[in-house]
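Input structure tokens:
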């Protein structure tokens, strides 16, 4: 199966799961909890507030050497966005690809995704854990802080809703 087929399949449109394709074209689904979605929104909101160009957005499908992966949040420069905005899945990764780890994810899975995004020209990979701690990486390894958004906090805090 190809990503275009997944996107056009009426039966798959409203599933409450994140969908990706593995290297054999098989659909891989994983459910998202509320905290996961909350962190997606908060990270995108923070990125858009810190950066005055480009745009942060959730659920970006990216072509990789292991078929289509969907980053939880990305930040894409205006220049790169003009390349990918009309594509079904991005032929080049946005500059920042962010994954929010859930209980169903493994370290190996996140390592694989990180490497796949770097292979298609991501400049940074961020990993957010279940407590909101962010770890930043570039192709050379782990970073003390993001080089593209140095003011981004190492921990995002969940809002208290009253």
């Amino acid at each position: 199966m190809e990503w275009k087929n997944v996107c056009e399949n009426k039966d798959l449109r409203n599933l409450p799961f994140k969908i990706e394709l593995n290297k054999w074209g098989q659909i891989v689904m994983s459910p998202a909890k509320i905290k996961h979605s909350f962190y997606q929104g908060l990270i995108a909101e923070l990125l858009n507030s810190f950066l005055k160009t480009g745009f942060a957005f959730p659920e970006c499908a990216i072509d990789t050497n292991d078929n289509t992966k969907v980053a939880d949040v990305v930040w894409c420069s205006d220049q790169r966005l003009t390349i990918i905005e009309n594509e079904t899945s991005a032929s080049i990764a946005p500059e920042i690809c962010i994954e929010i780890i859930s209980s169903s994810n493994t370290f190996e899975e996140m390592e694989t995704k990180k490497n796949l995004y770097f292979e298609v020209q991501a400049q940074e990979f961020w990993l957010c854990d279940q407590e909101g701690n962010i770890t930043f990486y570039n192709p050379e390894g782990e970073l003390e802080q993001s080089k593209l958004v140095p003011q981004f906090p190492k921990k995002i805090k969940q809002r208290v809703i009253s």
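The chain has a mean pLDDT of 85. Strands lie at 17-21, 27-31, 55-64, 67-76, 96-100, 124-128, 134-138, 141-143.
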